[in-house]
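User: Last request for today: this protein with flavin mononucleotide, please.
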Amino acid sequence: MVNARVERLCTDPELYIIRIDDDEIKYFEAAWYIPEGITYNAYLMKLKDAVVLFDTTKADYANLFLEKLRELVNPEEITHIIVHHTEPDHSGALPKVLEANNYKAQVIGTAFARNLLEGFYGKDVVKNFKVVKDGEEMSIGGKTFRFITVPWLHWPDTMITYVVEDRLIFSCDAGGGYSIPETIDDSDEEVVQRYLPHVAKYIVTVIGHYHKYIVQNIKKLKNLGIVDNARMILPGHGIAWCHNPRRIFEFYERVGAGVPEKDKVLVIYDSMYGFVERRMEIVLDELRKLGKKPVVYRFTDREAPAVSDILGEVPSAEAIIIGASTFEAEIHPRIRYTLFEILDKANYEKPVLIVGAFGWGGVAGRKIETLITRSKFDHVATVESKGMPTEEDEAKLREAVRKLVEWTS
Ligand SMILES: Cc1cc2nc3c(=O)[nH]c(=O)nc-3n(C[C@H](O)[C@H](O)[C@H](O)COP(=O)(O)O)c2cc1C
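Assistant: Here's the final one, the structure of the complex with flavin mononucleotide:
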């Protein structure tokens, strides 16, 4: 059941989180399988003469959101609504919130956000809209609100808000992650450790297409001197970083840059009748002999892992091994789709070994090789042969694995 949580994050300023815990969603953006669910975080700040709402929630949960909002404030008292990013998981409830507010609040966002909101919800939501530019400051309720654009993190409309006197960063999607963490903030290390892999999965699936902008935009915020001093980083999904806020942006930088975990080799393959599988047994044996720690995802007639999970593993891999069978003169469809998404969203400089099996004419290995050589990945070798691997094939596979491992050292 979808739940809502409201908690006070601090007393000075008086700041609350309204978190909708969505455990009913299956495919985020109708694409990414997330059985772990997701949260949509909005924040409410009560100041001397102002009440500021930072983002809202998904349209489906507008009534639940309003119910929780009313526990904190009469919606008509909201003076400002800051829209960091118009994707409807954050803006969907805005029309209902504005209706409950009698359109009294000023809505604040970038020029792009204004356009998108009008396109999504009509003219009413933008009739009291204030366009802000990069670096612009506004005095609200005695505090200085600085708006900083972070374009393509992950839409053109995206910005963050920095409340200068309190050193608070409201970062919306930047700093977010999948899953429904047990805690609201980062006070429990075990919760954080369980949560971080969901952050990596979120980064690659949602922001991955623009991953160079992750590093670029975080650098921009660091150069402004606001990250090192931040008291809290408050994202639109997942954990609110109230204790060690820098940690989440450091994690984002590592994922954005594809910093590998020592010895982790990501192995992905399909096998219809076990021929690719036999090759991968040899590959895995050689990898383990060389002290590597393979993480394996396989598509067979019994299992089909989520591509979103595979994507989340790419940034921290030292190297990747892709095994595929030739299927109707093409790469097997499962691997074709997985590879398409990896190249689009997790295109890193990492060594790749390709392993192929075919019946009457090898195509998959060569096609993968063409795609890999055109990407940022480094092509180490392609070992492709017919049916069941021979002793000669086995020797070639072991040699190729050794070459791959040397590449990582
Ligand atoms: C639906 C299907 C389509 C296939 N298409 C081709 C093909 O176009 N060219 C080819 O050489 N082999 C083709 N094969 C044969 C497989 O590539 C070959 O048997 C390979 O060893 C399969 O490995 P696997 O059982 O691990 O998937 C096809 C097999 C199937 C079941």
